[in-house]
């Protein structure tokens, strides 16, 4: 599902850049930010479905990156390390949201999202629009619980290996796979309820 | 005991992470269990559908890509510490001043600093209102002076500008006139040369044209004479032929007539004598 682009190839073959960045080379650090910023932003965007929150998490992630790059043990673990930082900032942001509003608990938020998601149906008679599908998929992702959502995003959109996801979340690979299974099952139900099938998309 | 793959195994199957043996076992199970096969197929479809959710483009903030964030973060920390240190020092000075009865006055007599002194109510001391008034007056005066300066400057500028514009206008007009005179003479010469050239060209044209016409008419006359001569020869030949034909025809007629006469004579001579007599 994850198509590798030239940018992905550059990201996955930047060992020397990472080594230079670790050694304190500010230009190498800047290049790494340029390479990875879009990925982290989109990870956070799918996690929160909110541009401002995604920008905030992306910026915090790369501030931490600048502060702690020297602590990275090996270049191979850079991807998992960066996503761990992003994931931690996402969790922190959720905690802040929950504590900021007593009347806006996670459960309530989830139920609101479900209501919002079920209110939007995909109309096959209407001319297909990519942005419309993006919106629906964004809402569908929001109906997942956080654990399932982050695993689905990391696997399906960020192309992380099961071992990398397990490292990022500090859980076993089987736990990752189990969360992914139930996450995809849930998404399937939501998409069927919205009348979105592969046949309709292909037509 | 029947084999049933758990969700981990099914995910491994979906993501192609099984050995051949495991894969065959899962496929056999799915063949026997259409519901499970439908579920797995549905999960695969879901993966395909959600992959349509496209990335959004974003530009990283320049501050993060310039790479000197760490130093700025550190320097910001130092700056904060410095500000806190200054604030603490000021607080300490104020506290000490308060405890020691520090007093400072500024008036026409000058600056007075003292400790533990009752501040004398001096008529000559300036109150806050007076300072404000003085400041206000000063500002007004400065403002008025600046306004006057600005007005006079504007006026002077306008005058200078007008004079300068007038001078430039005159210079420009003189320059144009001078140039016009020069150009006028040159233009006259040019026009005369053009006129002569045109006349020459027209004469040449007529000359050439007359010669051509003359040659043309001459050729035409020659052609016409030749034509007439030829026509005359043809007519002559025609009439000659006609005359020859006529002569031949009249000769033939004469021969025929002669033959007829000879025949008649012969016939008349052959008639018997008695018949001739009886008849008379």
Summarize this entry quickly.
The complex is a heterodimer of chains A (203) and B (280). With 203 residues, chain A is mainly alpha-helical. Chain A has helices spanning 6-12, 15-22, 26-48, 51-68, 78-100, 106-119, 130-142, 146-157, 162-169, 173-193, 198-202.
Radius of gyration of chain A: 18 Å
Give the overall average pLDDT of chain B. 82
The number of helical elements of chain B comes to 7
Biggest sheet descriptor of chain A: none
What share of residues of chain A is helical? over 70%
How much strand content do the residues of chain A show? under 5%
Q: State the assembly state of the protein chains.
A: heterodimer
User: What is the makeup of the main sheet of chain B?
Assistant: 2 strands, antiparallel
For the terminal residues of chain A, how far apart are their CA atoms?
19 Å
What's the pLDDT, averaged over the residues of chain A?
84
Note the overall shape of chain B: flat
What is the β-strand count of chain A? 0
How many runs of DSSP E, i.e. beta strands of chain B? 2
Structural class of chain B comes to mainly alpha
- Class from helix and strand fractions of chain A: mainly alpha
Shape summary of chain A: globular
Determine the strand fraction of chain B and express it as a percent band.
Answer: under 5%
Strand neighbour order, sheet with most strands of chain B: 1-2
SSE arrangement of chain A, N to C:
HHHHHHHHHHH
Low-pLDDT sequence parts of chain A: 103-108
């Amino acid at each position: 599902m994850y198509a590798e682009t030239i940018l992905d190839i550059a990201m996955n073959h930047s060992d020397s850049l990472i080594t230079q960045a670790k050694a304190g080379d500010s230009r190498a650090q800047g290049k790494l930010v340029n390479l990875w910023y879009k990925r982290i932003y989109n990870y956070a965007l799918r996690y929160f479905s909110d541009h401002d929150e995604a920008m905030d998490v992306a910026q915090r992630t790369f501030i931490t990156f600048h502060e702690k790059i020297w602590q990275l043990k090996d270049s191979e673990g850079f991807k998992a390390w960066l996503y761990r930082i992003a994931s931690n900032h996402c969790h922190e942001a959720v905690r802040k949201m929950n504590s900021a509003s007593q009347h806006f608990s996670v459960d309530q938020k989830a139920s609101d999202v479900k209501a919002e998601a079920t209110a939007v149906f995909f109309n096959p008679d209407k001319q297909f629009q990519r942005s419309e599908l993006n919106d629906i998929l964004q809402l569908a992702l929001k109906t997942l619980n956080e654990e399932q959502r982050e695993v689905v995003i990391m696997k399906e959109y960020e192309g992380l290996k099961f071992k990398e996801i397990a490292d990022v979340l500090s859980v076993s690979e089987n736990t990752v796979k189990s969360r992914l299974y139930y996450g995809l099952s849930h998404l399937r139900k939501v998409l069927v309820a919205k009348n979105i099938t592969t046949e309709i998309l292909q037509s | 005991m029947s084999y049933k793959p758990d969700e981990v195994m099914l995910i491994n199957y979906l993501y192609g992470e099984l050995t051949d043996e495991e894969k065959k076992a899962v496929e056999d199970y799915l063949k026997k269990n259409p519901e499970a096969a439908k579920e797995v197929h549905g999960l695969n479809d879901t993966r395909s559908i959600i992959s349509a959710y496209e990335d959004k483009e974003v530009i990283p903030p320049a501050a993060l890509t310039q790479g000197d964030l760490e130093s700025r973060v550190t320097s910001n920390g130092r700056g904060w510490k410095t500000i806190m240190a200054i604030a603490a020092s000021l607080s300490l000075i104020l506290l000490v001043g308060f405890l020691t009865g520090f007093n400072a006055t500024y008036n026409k007599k000058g600056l007075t600093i003292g400790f533990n002194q009752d501040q004398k109510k001096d008529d000559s001391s300036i109150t806050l209102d007076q300072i404000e008034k003085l400041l206000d007056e000063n500002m007004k005066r400065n403002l008025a002076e600046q306004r006057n300066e600005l007005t006079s400057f504007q006026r002077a500028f306008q005058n200078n500008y007008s004079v300068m514009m007038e001078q430039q206008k005159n210079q420009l007009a003189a320059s144009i006139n001078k140039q016009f005179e020069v150009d006028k003479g040159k233009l006259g010469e040019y026009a005369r040369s053009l006129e002569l050239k045109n006349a020459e060209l027209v004469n040449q044209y007529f000359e050439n044209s007359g010669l051509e016409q003359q040659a043309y008419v001459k050729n035409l006359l020659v052609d016409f004479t030749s034509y007439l001569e030829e026509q005359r020869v043809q007519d002559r030949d025609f009439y000659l032929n006609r005359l020859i034909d006529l002569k031949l025809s009249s000769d033939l007629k004469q021969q025929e007539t002669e033959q007829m006469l000879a025949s008649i004579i012969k016939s008349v001579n052959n008639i018997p004598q008695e018949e001739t007599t009886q008849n008379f």
